């Protein structure tokens, strides 16, 4: 059974909107899209009077090279959030279908589902904060169209054993699409991407983003890696021009051959600083536990997370309060900053927690 048979029939049958830019074929005098002939004044406005390509060829090719997939297996959009939303709208009928998530995990899966009026089935992570494949497969019903897993997981930071992904992929064949969120994969040294499964499993999709390791959170560039038929389906319901011209330029610069070594260097610094924070905080008064992390953050259990949060904020340092998540009622999530930012963090925590040693 093709995974498209699990998608909404009306989406499969619909005729997509044909944008002026998509219909254009060559030409230098563009009079087909009702644009203004002049660009605004300003350093970053060049070309902004013209609509961008719906899926810029050079950007798609560059991303396909980075993620080691074919261009037709890649959809680029406004962060991973857009891909999540598109999947929900394409596969879940309002009031009838459902998704499976593994709390504590990224909140947008459930939000996108509820906006679509799809049910959310929660299968909690195991005690070590990894997905329980057997429990997920046992929770499946014919209403479930999408199963989301996140690895390394947000907000806990734990990677997923590739064998678990394979087990889920095999168990969900002809049943549901498995969506693996790999937003933090670049920080999980030695991990392999679930995109390696795409050639054999048309029901596996992978979320990637330039917001984390590539430093482009403000540009909002994310990708869905999936079977070409799934990419084609989602393009039917995607906005005609999802990516702003400045964001495309920023992504192309970051992905250029000259810039890639800098990205790798900065990931290395993050890994060193992550270890530094773990070693510095371990055993401090008031620190109960530092959860193992393969991401660019650590989740820290504290005796008084509320007061710790307030003291950091008073010093101008903002961390994430994750006490609302299941089993994390005593935790804060701390992103790994620059060495200088981490110096400030440790100085404030040392003063508050009474640690006398040096970081």
UniProtKB/TrEMBL annotation:
Cofactor list: pyridoxal 5'-phosphate
Pfam families the record matches: Aminotran_1_2 (PF00155)
Domain Aminotransferase class I/classII large: 46-348
CDD domains, alphabetized: AAT_like (cd00609)
Enzyme Commission identifier(s): 2.6.1.9
Keywords: Amino-acid biosynthesis, Aminotransferase, Histidine biosynthesis, Pyridoxal phosphate, Transferase
Modification N6-(pyridoxal phosphate)lysine, positions: 212
Gene3D superfamilies found in the cross-reference section: Aspartate Aminotransferase, domain 1, Type I PLP-dependent aspartate aminotransferase-like (Major domain)
An annotated GO BP: L-histidine biosynthetic process
Subunit record text: Homodimer.
UniProt name for this protein: Histidinol-phosphate aminotransferase
Protein species of origin: Frateuria aurantia (strain ATCC 33424 / DSM 6220 / KCTC 2777 / LMG 1558 / NBRC 3245 / NCIMB 13370)
Name of encoding gene: hisC
